Amino acid sequence: MAKKNKKPRILIVTPEVTYIPEDMGKLDDYSAKAGGLADVSAALISALYDLNADVHVALPDYRSIFDKNNPKTFIKEIDKIIDRLDDDRVHLAEDRAFYYLNNIYSGYSDKDLKVSLAFQREVINNIIPRVKPDIIHCNDWMTGLIPAMAKQFNIPCLFTIHNIHTITSTMAEIEDRGIDAASFWNQLYFMTPPYNYEESRNWNKVDFLTSGIFSAHYVNTVSHTFLMEIIAGKHPFVEPQIKQELTNKYYAQCATGIINAPDPEFNPAVDEKIRFNYGPKNHHEKKIKNKEHLQFMLDLEVDKNAPLLFWPSRLDPVQKGCQLLADVMYNNINFYHDINLQIVVVASGSFDGHFRDIVKFHSIEKNVVICDFNEDLSHQAFASSDFILMPSSFEPCGLPQMIGCIYGALPIVFDTGGLHDTIKRLDIENNTGNGFLFNIHNSDGLQWAIDKAMEFYKLDNKIKETQINRIMIDSVLEFNHTICAGNYINLYEKMLKRPFIV
Q1: What gap in Å lies between CA 229 and CA 235, rounded to an integer?
Q2: Which of 119, 124, 74, 55 has its CA nearest to residue 92?
Q3: DSSP 445-472
Q4: What is the phi-psi region of residue 368: left when phi exceeds 0, alpha when psi lies from -120 to 50, beta otherwise?
């Protein structure tokens, strides 16, 4: 527990974090990033520090990833971070298991497990004793054993779930990697209820993500609705033990949802990656210029009046709903030919070839362009587009829909998870809402939402400008890391006041 007259010391333990130099060409040049967790971790650390919190961070020393493109620039940038946080606040876990990795996750469970155990061993054995935190904040399955150790030693621990993925291992394997699981084995979650330590050590699998949920003082997902969807059993891909332990935590009043926020660099007024900067008051004129610039760049038909739809998410048909757009892509280009509807995809993933085949088969290259992910191009597309396409079948949080609102590009989304918590149906008469939602996850549902968006697009410019101006202002005020960090600080304070039950 924190001492009186002393700010609580917070240790954020994360397998991913992003450092973003000002002159960066690609987002992953100087980062340890596999997904949104990296951006959220880096921004939360910075925002907590700005709010005068005593924040520390533990992450693996991914030497090859950190300096793979420009070691000197990376060193300069990490020095900036360390200077801001004081010399002893950034704690790099040292081990050959992650020195020479090219990617954080290999896709092979045995290799990812090895990295996870090496990281957690260093955090448990060296970093936590050195930092002496009042609160530990862990993130995702790669940190899932730490809450059990924290509980054993009465350190309040928050466990944040960004990705519902998990992995399992035996205590024998965990201990072989240098973690004294015997000292906190009864705080772990086993796939089979254990009889005792000796009986379970060599065969009974420990579930990492579920252990984090089970042992943590408090748990949060990155949206309230996603948490409730898991508890209600709406996502069959969620393992039953994860659902059960989250349900237990929720009904014990120890689980909540905290929405992430985009990085502050996503602001059209200051974004250095877009051609023409703008704000709510002059968005109409400058977005047209940005649109024409993007159209020229991508060899689309240059037409300032063409409604431009932007796909910003990875091309993953399991989650992101790529197949829904594939089903309606040509029909929309054909049906809205009179207003020259255009679609820009800036994303990578397994569905890439399907989109390219549709464009080639129908010869619609002047209306649809498919581009591999590129950070600069993605920023320009946000600034140029009128609408954002996010028909995800599930979404723990999502960031592009919030970025779209900040840039005046209204989201077209499936009503789920974090999309539900951040996007409300546009209601012009009542001057509320910020996008277009559909409730049935199929191509007809997406088409219905696109049609509603096109109805809005055909309205008088003054009506549209008024709504977009309002949405841009509201979004900057609502979707920011000061609010996100404030929510975490409130949760930390709640944890410190709540009796710790071992």
Answers
A1: 7
A2: 119
A3: HHHHHHHHHHHHHTS-HHHHHHHHHHHH
A4: beta
Residue 21 has pLDDT above 70, yes or no: no
31-32 and 17-18 strand pairing: antiparallel
Q: How far apart are CA 384 and CA 297, in angstroms?
A: 12
Q: Report the pLDDT averaged over residues 440-451.
A: 98
**Non-local CB neighbours of 153 within 8 Å, separated by 6+ positions:** none
Beta bridge partners of 90: 57
311-to-177, 285, 321 alpha-carbon distances in Å: 43, 22, 11
Q: Nearest-5° angle of CA 271, CA 276, CA 279?
A: 70
86-131 residue pLDDT tens: 447 778 889 888 887 777 666 657 888 999 999 999 999 999 999 9
* Cα–Cα nearest to 20, from 86, 63, 73: 73
pLDDT at 437: 98
pLDDT surpasses 80 at 148 = yes
Q: Which residues pair with 479 in a beta bridge?
A: none
CA distance 489 to 494: 9
Is 411 or 32 the better-scoring residue by pLDDT?
A: 411
